[in-house]
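Sequence design from tokenized structure. All designs in this work follow the same two-part layout: the structure record, then the generated sequence. An example of the structure record is given first.
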């Protein structure tokens, strides 16, 4: 295979964006960056022969779905009835569904929506198999899979490690029931989290060692998500080779369902300074909340980049380092406006003294951020907008009291 070098479009330089013109707070997706990711994902899909679908749990900004379809993304994976409905109504392609457990109440509607349906246990498969068989007898073409756990993972944070000890996700080899595979035509695994293709290659070794004997009976294998192919430095050639070789070895259709790869570095969270307070150290109070609008900062945890800001000289760099090297300037503790004492990101150095009304822009805030926001404390929820390639800003959604009230009783 020749060197893989897809032709990717240029992207917007954030230094050229007039941030003050964008109403705050707002999640802002950059169309040029999304197109760049989609061009790369589409090229990987074409070269590898795998089907790449979007995982709604990481990226489900449905106003962008026409762009995804434009680049040949023809399906989505849902983790609930609500996501399955969204996939059918807005993605308008294949609907793949996996959930750790299905309820008797939701399953009939999920069954109507799904093209691929993955069960987390043989108990669930046996429970709902009669309904699946009835749907097939009525003429439905329905693919059924079992999620397996090969008990191999390279995820640093336990919160995000599906292959960790005593995981409730997937069937381990010792619990696997080869005698219950009648009606099952695929296997699904998911143990990656923003990993490179070298991790996938090692993962497939463990998967084949544990479950390879069942692959001759399968038509497809879903490699799950966590394939961060749009990150700079990701080994795309290895990914393409690994997928091709697996398809050739086993004669199966391969599915990848990344979420982060679609939204990776495609936009920002724009915020404004509401107040500057001093208690030994200066602190910026922003019109966004860390706990309500950037929960992974506390859960993972990680330190997001702020455009134009840097680290204190004594600070080391974090997994998601702030913008630029450690520097001298004006240090501020950056936090939100909820009553949670820990609604704080950390301390950053800004090149100038900050004042009320100044914009603070957080980088890479589209994937796994927008999908996890809450209305905690009733604080204003950020708008959702798109910065188009022609620099036109489109307000897609503004949240108000009714959305907050609708979550309560």
């Amino acid at each position: 295979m020749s060197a893989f070098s897809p032709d990717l479009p240029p992207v917007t330089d954030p230094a050229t964006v007039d941030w003050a013109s964008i109403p705050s707070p707002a999640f802002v997706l950059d169309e040029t960056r999304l197109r760049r990711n989609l061009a790369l994902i589409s090229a990987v899909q074409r070269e590898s022969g795998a089907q790449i679908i979007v995982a709604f749990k990481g990226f489900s900004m449905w106003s962008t779905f026409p762009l995804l379809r434009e680049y040949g993304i023809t399906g989505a994976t849902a983790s609930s009835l609500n996501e399955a409905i969204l996939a059918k109504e807005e993605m308008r392609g294949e609907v793949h569904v996996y959930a750790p457990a299905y309820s008797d109440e939701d399953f009939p509607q999920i069954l109507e929506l799904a093209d691929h349906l993955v069960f987390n246990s043989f108990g669930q498969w046996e429970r709902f198999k009669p309904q699946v068989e009835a749907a097939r007898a009525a003429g439905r073409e329905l693919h059924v899979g079992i999620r397996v756990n090969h008990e191999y993972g390279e995820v640093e944070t336990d919160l995000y490690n599906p292959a960790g000890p005593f995981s409730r996700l997937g069937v381990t080899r010792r619990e696997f029931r080869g005698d219950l595979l009648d009606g099952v035509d695929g296997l699904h695994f998911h143990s990656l989290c923003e990993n490179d293709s070298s991790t996938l290659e090692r993962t497939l070794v463990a998967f084949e060692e544990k479950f390879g004997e069942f692959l001759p009976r399968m038509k497809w294998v879903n490699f799950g998500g966590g394939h961060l192919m749009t990150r700079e430095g990701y080994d795309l050639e290895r990914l393409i080779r690994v997928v091709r070789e697996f398809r050739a070895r086993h004669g199966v259709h391969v599915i990848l369902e990344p979420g982060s790869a679609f939204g990776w570095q495609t936009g920002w969270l724009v915020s404004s300074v509401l107040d500057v307070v001093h208690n030994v150290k200066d602190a910026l109070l922003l019109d966004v909340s860390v706990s309500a609008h950037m929960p992974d900062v506390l859960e993972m945890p990680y330190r997001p980049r702020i455009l134009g800001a840097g680290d204190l000289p004594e600070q080391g760099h974090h997994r998601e380092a702030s913008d630029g090297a450690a520097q001298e300037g004006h240090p501020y503790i950056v936090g939100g406006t909820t009553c949670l004492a820990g609604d704080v990101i950390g301390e950053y150095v800004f090149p100038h003294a900050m004042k009320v009304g100044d914009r603070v822009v957080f980088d890479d805030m589209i994937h796994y951020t927008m999908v996890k926001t809450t209305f905690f404390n009733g604080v204003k929820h950020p708008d959702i907008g798109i910065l188009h390639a022609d620099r036109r800003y489109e307000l897609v959604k503004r949240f108000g009291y009714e959305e907050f009230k609708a979550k309560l009783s």
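Residues 101 and 316 are 42 Å apart (CA to CA). We note this feature because it recurs in several other targets discussed in the main text.
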